[in-house]
Amino acid sequence: MEHEKQTENPMIKLSRFIVDKRKAFYLIFIAAFIFCVVSIPKVEINNDITSYLPEETETRRGLTIMDEEFITLGTADVMVANVTYDTAEQLSHQLENIPGVSEVVFDDTIDHFKDSYALFSITFDGETEDPVSVDAMKLVEQKLQGYDVYTSTTVGVDKSASLQEEMMVILGIAAVVIVLVLLFTSKSYMEVPVYLIVFGVAAVLNMGTNFIFGSISFITNAIAVVLQLALAIDYAIIFCHRYMEEHEHGLDAREANIQALSKAIIEISSSSLTTISGLIALMLMQLKIGFDMGIVLAKGIICSMLCVFLLMPGLLMLFNKPIDRTRHKNLVPKIDIWGKMVVKLRYILPPIFLVIMVIGIMLSNRCEYVFDSNDADFDNKSEMDLAREKIIDTFGEKNTIAVLVPKGDYKKEKAILDRVSSIECITDATGLANIEVEDGKTLTDEMTPRQFAELAKVDIELSHLLYQAYGLSVEEYGAIFQNPDDYSVPLLDVFEFLLEQKDKGVINLTGEQEEKVDDLDKKLDMGLKQLRGENWVRLVFVADLPIEGESTYALLDQIRKIAEFYYGDDVILVGNSTNAFDLASSFSGDNMKISILTALFVMAILLFTFKSAGLPILLVLTIQGSIWINFSFPVINHTNLFFLSYLVVSSIQMGATIDYAIVITSRYLALKDSMNKKEAVVEALSQSFPTILTSGTIMAVAGFLIGGISTDATIGSVGLTLGRGTVTSILLVMTVLPQFLLLGDIIIERTAITLNRDRKQRFNQGSMRIDGHIRGHVSGFVDGEFKGILHGSVDALIESKYQEDKDSQ
Predict the structure, then answer these.
(1) Nearest Cα to 373, choosing from 580, 217, 153, 161?
(2) Strands, E, within 142-186: which ranges?
(3) Which of 352, 378, 365 is nearest to 628 (CA)?
(4) Residue 471 host element (H or E)
């Protein structure tokens, strides 16, 4: 016994330690589970996809400036259908009187009343998430109860909360499907509770440790659990099946656990590398949401592996007797008929696949990608999205574009406002330089002391003194030495100077004058906070154009050129359209980067796994073909695709479904040495079918559930595309890949990487210590990595770290 322990390899020793110390690991996982349950609420959810834009993009720079220097009041577009104009006008007045409502824009123009449809453009007193705005929005909804109402707003809308509710439904249905699949493919009914405990703990550990990142995106938060389950379910199945095999061979529960774990650690770790490599490629995206999703899912894979390696052995020991008592016959049928059909069609299907793949390449390159989720062709839209579309169909687009320019020159601002507002598709333009204070007079127009006195209702003498004091403060001495009525100052500047002197007590106003000034101050204050910052001024335009498209991007260029005429390069455009443009600009680079890196990472792993240069090409070609075919469907269906769906799914589809190809290939290579190649293909398909059926079904179902239930276009399109891609990969792996292996066997053999250095033909009998590669006859033919002691006769090429022959010594 002591001798056997000395000759144990490190993996056996590690496995023995884990199994024997299982109670300690119970305590560790219980403590970690409780900690993570408490930590889950601490994870901040980021609903703003623009925050993941690279810092150097125009949209990101503009949003940063606006966050620092401006406030943006909450707004809502509320459309009431089947009303008369008189009724709509009454409703408008009622909405204006609601506490928290700053302004309601409604008139008899076609912009606000059309064919018995009334559109109220509401502005609130607070920002989007301000309780004042949220409460006012609720009162607006209450006021309009009983009417046919369509609302488009972000005020009071908790996107992450609604997504979590949907994902709970998805997770519940997925759990039922998973249990059914596991019951069908398991060897004992009591395996299933073990799987569920391991999955549940792994999911909680991943969610509870997300707080280390500070915040995660709403997309990652919504789909991480389901994808973690779909991606990592293989690990528990591989280990459990290993355990059952060792147990069936006569080992007791403890020894079966040790042997199974020692083999499973290597197998599962190798399998996880391809999945993690796809996620690493996702993390290298220029758009940082790729890093957000990649790092959380990669952490989820690691949490799942740790639970399988450290927790599951103890659970199998704990449930050992119930597992033995609930054994049942194998419910998964043998698919020899399918395998024989695949063999017979080996000269037909590969050429057809290659033709379809070429067509897939051409069609997928023509796929129309959109970069605003509102523009995605997605059937399962929320009520809010449907209401928004109804409003657009009735009254046209309201595409808001903000232009940031340096503060300080009202004339240039007015020139830009006038020129841009004259463009045909511009329906509204707002800036300090075009806000009217009375008929024909704007906030930035220059006024003489007399004009200001009439407007502010102050004495002319006080107005003269005010102008002279202002002139001194800005070192314009003409205000003192020339006729005061010839000196003019922008209304906004002199009014702010008046307020400043009033607050200092320099100027005293009568009751009526103070009331008038305070009233003007309140009206100006909120407008100034929205349009003027410490260093920048914001000009806001509304265009009747979609968020993205050639005409929209042409308008952005036109606006930019007008602004740059006055300010040079100190111009920043911000809005949903600029966001879409920036995303489109980074997409092409991210697209190429993810495709190339994922393929290279996977091929490198396969090269080291199978030690053949030709085999990785066959496997990657099969899965890449399924990716091209998957992204041909939007073109065939005449629909567009949200860009994030491609970036996420292409990396996951390559990184995860390549495992199906690895399972079949490994079985085939092991079997072809003991039977002919055709029989090896048939048997490899039969042996691999339960694993592929379990993992593939769960991933496909998870994808289709997300796509069918989620009302968020971003998440729904990812789910739908992933489900479709998984099914495509399974079909190709179960048909075309075995045929490639059969037809390309000679390529696999000739491109095999063998290291003949230090490998010598040896003829020995007795015991030989080996740690290396052996190829030859050892009471049967052997070709593989071997570590341990052989007892018997050896006639083989051996490359070993140990050169001693114990018997000869």
Answers:
(1) 580
(2) 148-153
(3) 365
(4) helix 460-473
Alpha-carbon distance 230 to 207, whole Å? Answer: 16
pLDDT < 50 positions in the chain: 1-4, 6, 755-766, 802-809
Q: Are 71 and 529 in contact (CB under 8 A)?
A: yes
Beta strands 426-430 and 113-114, pairing class: unpaired
| Nearest CA-CA partner of 225 in 309, 275, 296, 308 | 296
- Helix 253-283 to helix 576-610 angle (10° resolution) is 140
- pLDDT tens by residue, 140-198: 999 999 899 999 998 888 777 777 788 888 888 888 888 888 888 888 888 889 999 99
CA–CA separation, 752 and 616 (whole Å): 11
Are 251 and 195 in contact, with CB atoms under 8 Å apart? no
Q: Which residue has the tokens 């995860």?
A: 656
Q: Is the dihedral of CA 356, 357, 360, 362 positive or negative?
A: negative
Q: Which residue type is seen at 589?
A: G
The pLDDT of residue 543 is 92
The reported pLDDT for the residue numbered 202 is 93
pLDDT tens digit sequence for 532-580: 888 999 999 999 999 998 999 999 999 999 999 999 999 999 999 999 8
Rounded-to-integer distance, Cα 518 and Cα 515, Å: 5
pTM: 0.78
CB atoms near residue 299 (< 10 Å): 19
314 contacts 23 by C-beta, under 8 angstroms: yes
* Beta bridge partners of residue 78, listed in sequence order: 120, 151
Q: What is the DSSP string of 705-751?
A: HHHHH---HHHHHHHHHHHHHHHHHHHHHHHHHHHHHHHTHHHHHHT
Query: In sequence order, what DSSP letters do the residues of 401-448 get, joined into one string?
Result: EEEEEESS-HHHHHHHHHHHHTSTTEEEEE-GGG-EEETTEETTSEE-
Q: How far apart are CA 571 and CA 171, in angstroms?
A: 47
Q: Could you tell me if 612 and 97 are in contact, meaning their C-beta atoms sit under 8 angstroms apart?
A: no
Q: Distance from CA of residue 572 to its chain's centroid?
A: 27
Chain mean pLDDT for the chain: 84
